[in-house]
Amino acid sequence: MKNQRKLIIITGPSGVGKGTVVKEILEKNNTFWLSISATTREPRIGEKDGREYYFLTKRKFREMIIKGLFLEWAEFAGNLYGTLEESVTKKINIGSIVILEIEVEGAKQVREKYPNTLSIFLLPPSKKELEKRIRNRATDNEESILRRLKRAEFEIDSSKEFDFAITNQNLDETVEEILELIKVSN
After folding, report:
1. Under 8 Å CB-to-CB from 125, ≥6 apart: which residues?
2. Measured in Å, how far apart are the chain's first and last C-alpha atoms?
3. Superfamily name with CATH number, domain 4-185
4. Which of 18, 9, 29, 13 is nearest to 71 (CA)?
5. Nearest CA among 124, 103, 82, 107 for reference residue 163
6. Is there a contact between 74 and 7 (Cβ–Cβ < 8 Å)?
7. Could you write out the three-class secondary structure of the chain?
8. 52, 36 in Cβ contact below 8 A?
9. Contacts (Cβ under 8 Å, ≥6 apart) of 53
10. Domain ranges of the chain
11. Partner of 82 for a Cys bridge, out of 70, 116, 120, 147, CB 3.0 to 4.6 A?
12. Which residues contact 50 (CB under 8 A, 6 or more apart)?
């Protein structure tokens, strides 16, 4: 893929605030395009197919893996998540800057395929704050919360593998720092 710097990865552990940060970035700069991921998890209250995610059955998702339709995919907390490659490459080829808000494992896959991609890892202010954020979402049972927290420790250790690691302490500051990084990189 040409123009790899037109592909921006924003990743970090579950509960770090990726979705909130990306939403603010898109509100401040509507020229970016957010790639919509596919998932096998059930929709949360208020989510719509094709808006937040493409909600697929595990069977359909696995068929798409076999056909090579994903730029990246990973299993996380018992569900599959992935980015459809065709939609991303189409946007980049017409000059759009594409943001991928994806899990850490998927981010690593994209970086292997496209090493010049700008990758930004969001860190929580503390482990205690991360746990608070995950619990406050009230979307997971206790077992799922503990799995996410255990996984977060492993993911945070990998933050040094990414171009930039930013602590998401203050939303406005985090967004401004990311917008500046994107500006400087393109």
Report:
1. 167, 168, 169
2. 16
3. P-loop containing nucleotide triphosphate hydrolases (3.40.50.300)
4. 9
5. 107
6. no
7. CCCHHHEEEEECCCCCCHHHHHHHHHHHCCCEEECCEEECCCCCCCCCECCCEEECCHHHHHHHHHCCCEEEEEEECCEEEEEEHHHHHHHHHCCCEEEEECCHHHHHHHHHHCCCCEEEEEECCCHHHHHHHHHHHCCCCHHHHHHHHHHHHHHHHCHHHCCEEEECCCHHHHHHHHHHHHHHHC
8. yes
9. 36, 37, 38, 39, 41, 43, 47
10. 4-185
11. 70
12. 36
13 Rama class: left (phi>0) / alpha (psi -120 to 50) / beta: beta
Residue 74: name the closest of 167, 11, 32 by CA.
11
| Digitized pLDDT (tens) for each residue of the chain, 186 residues in all | 454 568 999 999 988 999 999 999 999 988 899 999 999 999 988 999 999 899 999 999 999 999 999 999 988 778 999 999 999 999 999 889 999 999 898 999 999 988 889 999 999 999 999 888 888 877 778 888 888 889 899 999 999 999 999 999 999 999 999 999 998 887
Tokens 């937040």, located at residue = 52
